[in-house]
Specification:
The protein is mainly alpha-helical and 234 residues long. It has helices at 16-28, 40-47, 51-64, 82-104, 108-119, 121-131, 134-151, 155-174, 185-198, 201-211, and strands at 37-38, 67-70, 74-77.
Amino acid sequence: MSGIQSLSAIASRPTAVIIADQIRERIIDGSFRSGEQINEVHVAAQLNVSRGPVREALGRLVQEGLLVSHRNRGNFVRETTEHDVAEVFEAREVIECAAAESITKQRPEAIARTGEELREYLPLMQEAVDDRDWTRMSRINIEFHTHLVRAGGNARLDRAYATLATEALICMTHLRRSFTAVEDIVPSHLRVIELLEAGDMAAVHLELHEHLAVDGHELHTHSHEETLRHGRDD
């Protein structure tokens, strides 16, 4: 099924936000392929809406960086390269380390509550691992890390991470990345939680640096030998 055909008609009054949400999901799941044009006329016809909200929706996705607009040509799904993956995962590391540092400075009861909330994702991860459902695993993984960032209490970091989370899912889909060291998926997330609870920021950063990689490759734009730059104690 093509990207256009996978969109469903909107029963209620159509809005640009709802249309953007549908298209975003179809980009994430690969229905719209990397580099594919998303035709405004075709989308409007498929959803049985006017072109105005579709144009606005596509503009939103251009602002999010998911689409690229070419003058006199239209809107295209941004092509994902190895360097894009490196940038996305390095940016995730920066934001997650900043959020983790904020968490470690919170009151003990707040840290404990965050630990309890993050632990709720672990059985869901284990179920996905047992089922070898890597699409579901990817989404639960992103939900875990999004919750971690949100727990840091910085609304701007939270907003910035929302786009990165979407891009990370797209990287996993379009580059057909898969999880390796399957037996360590749940334990590695548990280690992040325990280190947060212990307040060991240096260890949290080291764990996140190793954690935020795909297929076991070092995808950061800085070299493995460089001193880790993010989340260091001053």
